[in-house]
Design brief:
The complex is a heterodimer. Chain A is mainly alpha-helical. Helix content of chain A is 70%, strand content 0%. Classes of the chains: A mainly alpha, B mainly alpha.
């Protein structure tokens, strides 16, 4: 394969549409997730307006789900807001990772792109930003992905609110949609031993800390897993320097 | 919408936007140290794995490590498909299919 064979998208419209296309698989995961959220929201005692309002203004699926669960347990507003903060802290890390690629943009771009940042859009756009094709309109790619996710999320929420009158929908287990989406994002990232170590520590720590209140276990696990990845990186790097010809990690790829 | 619902949504909006936007807008204008950039590469794997694993293994507050747990079975199948194909769409479609089928078979 030579470099010239790769198509270079260099128009705003092309980037916008490519961003939407790349997000399509994640929309498929978000459809059942959003419908279940809408149904679960009204089932938890939230008004339909508040259930939709959360999708419109908060726009963070896993946090919305957890908030609806806390409403069902009659938790106070302060606890719900604090939990949302903890659950969404990972977005600060996503933002920091994307920031170098958007630092040239004016506020009228940064405000909506920041507001619309989700796991799904991050997963799609970070791969695109890091491709060295030199396109100057990659923020349009993120715009396409973000807008698609946002508009879709409102529609799925509405369908869920309407369908929420049907008893038993929340028991169908469609929340697996979130898990399968995240699995499809994570597994291809496990390309070397530090990444695998990171995933193993994240999984084990998340199980051990599961009982901690307000999803604090999530943050503890994330920090432990990042540390594990960095430590593994430091452990294997000197060995590589001694024998630079060995690239055994590549052979694992199919 | 009640007053406390409004308060909750305003609060959630402020904290969520507050972790997304400022970092995106400010960090790009400062030079991030190399160790921070290295650490950030592990963030998606760390956070998403920590969300997924308990979802698959712990149901309704107790461990469900057995073949009648459709979340676990479909999760393993999805991971294998993703590993072999790296195709996100295929992973989601087949994973959801296996999940619904397994639930129907085991009657859970």
């Amino acid at each position: 394969m030579n470099a010239a064979a790769q198509p270079t998208i260099s128009t705003r419209r092309g980037e916008f549409l490519a961003g939407m296309r790349a997000t399509l698989p994640l929309i498929l995961g978000a459809i059942p997730f959003g419908i279940i959220y809408g149904a679960f929201g009204v089932g938890s005692g939230l008004s339909p307006a508040a259930t939709l309002g959360m999708s419109l203004f908060v726009f963070a699926g896993s946090a919305q789900f957890i908030a609806a669960g806390l409403v069902a347990q009659d938790s106070g507003v302060v606890l719900i807001v604090l939990t949302t903060f903890v659950v969404n802290l990972r977005h600060a890390l996503y933002s920091a990772s994307l920031a170098p690629f958007v630092k040239h943009l004016p506020q009228r771009w940064l405000l909506p792109l920041g507001f619309w940042l989700t796991d799904e859009t991050y997963a799609v756009v970070i791969t695109h930003y890091t491709q060295p094709d030199g396109s100057p309109y990659k923020h349009w790619y993120q715009f396409g992905s973000s807008l698609f996710m946002y508009v879709g999320w409102q529609v799925w929420t509405l369908i869920g609110i309407i369908a929420g009158q049907q008893p038993g929908l929340a028991k169908l287990g469609l929340d697996f949609a979130m898990s399968v989406t995240f699995i499809g994002i994570v597994v291809p990232l496990l390309v070397n031993r530090p990444m695998v170590a990171c995933a193993l520590v994240a999984g084990v720590t998340a199980l051990l800390t599961y009982a901690l209140p307000n999803k604090m276990g999530l943050m503890v696990s994330a920090v432990a897993a990042i540390a594990a990845g960095l430590i593994m990186e430091n452990v294997i790097t000197p060995r590589r320097q001694r024998a630079p010809a060995v690239t055994s990690e590549q052979e694992a790829a199919p | 919408m009640t007053g406390s619902e409004l308060l909750m949504i305003v609060g959630m909006t402020v904290v969520t936007f507050g972790v997304r936007y400022p970092v995106l807008a400010l960090v790009g204008r400062l030079q991030l140290p190399q160790p921070v950039i290295r650490a950030l590469r592990y963030v998606p794997v760390a956070v998403l794995t920590a969300i997924i694993v308990p979802e698959l293994l712990i149901r309704d507050g107790s461990w469900q490590v057995n073949p009648s747990n459709a979340y676990l079975v479909a999760g393993i199948v999805s991971a294998l498909i993703s590993w072999r194909t790296k195709n996100l769409l295929l992973t989601i479609v087949v994973g959801m299919g296996v999940f619904l089928l397994w639930r129907a078979i085991t009657g859970a």
